[in-house]
Write a structure and sequence with these properties.
single chain; 247 residues; alpha/beta; Rossmann fold; 11 helices; 38% helix; globular
Amino acid sequence: MWRDGVRAHVFALTLGFLSSCVTPPAPIPMRAVRDASPTSPAKCLVVFLPGAGDHAEHFTRENFVSAIRERKLSVDLISTDATLGYYLGGSIIERLEQDVLAGTPHYEHTWFIGNSMGGHGSLLYPSRKPGVVTGVLALAPWLGNTLPQEIAKAGGLPSWQPGDGQEFERLFWSWLQRVTVKGEAGPELWLGFGTADRLANADEVLAAVLPPERVFRDEGGLHKWVTWHRLFVQFLEKSTFAEQCRP
């Protein structure tokens, strides 16, 4: 779970796509916990990405896995140990591709679901690997340092001009603009966050360009697993995911 040192973590995430001489561990291959569907072959794959300080087991511990299994959906689940070191070292995309997705069967639908840092990662992967991911549920995702404020001041993503800068955040938001405002092909984007979350202002910038039915807000919810679980249940009940993954 996120600790109180939010600014330090966000700063670290920004540096994660630059060179860094000191990085936390990022074992190769990336560890993952796999949970096969009782109905085989499964129609869908879900890849879970954890927040900073969390691990693959949190998705079982916090009842994300059981919420899917209770609905008897045809889904294989992979809970990843996509920890901070992979972001800081710039290897997150490569390790997900080679250690998590490589060798998996063909699925009709592949979803990435993540919270906080993992919410960011769940959006980052399809921005770098188009055509792989059907849909994304980003729960209280980290979306950048100051750029969300810049976009809001410009009047939102429809009027924001990304310019020619090659900074990581600018490229990331430029992709979000293309797949939401400009109609470029991309995954279904779903977003959930608590209204009292410390990242809510930035998340609202993205929410403003998503169809309202794809945005879930938990009134008064904080940056905590209890909030994310409530939002996840809403997603399972109201999104296209359950329909896609029925046996």
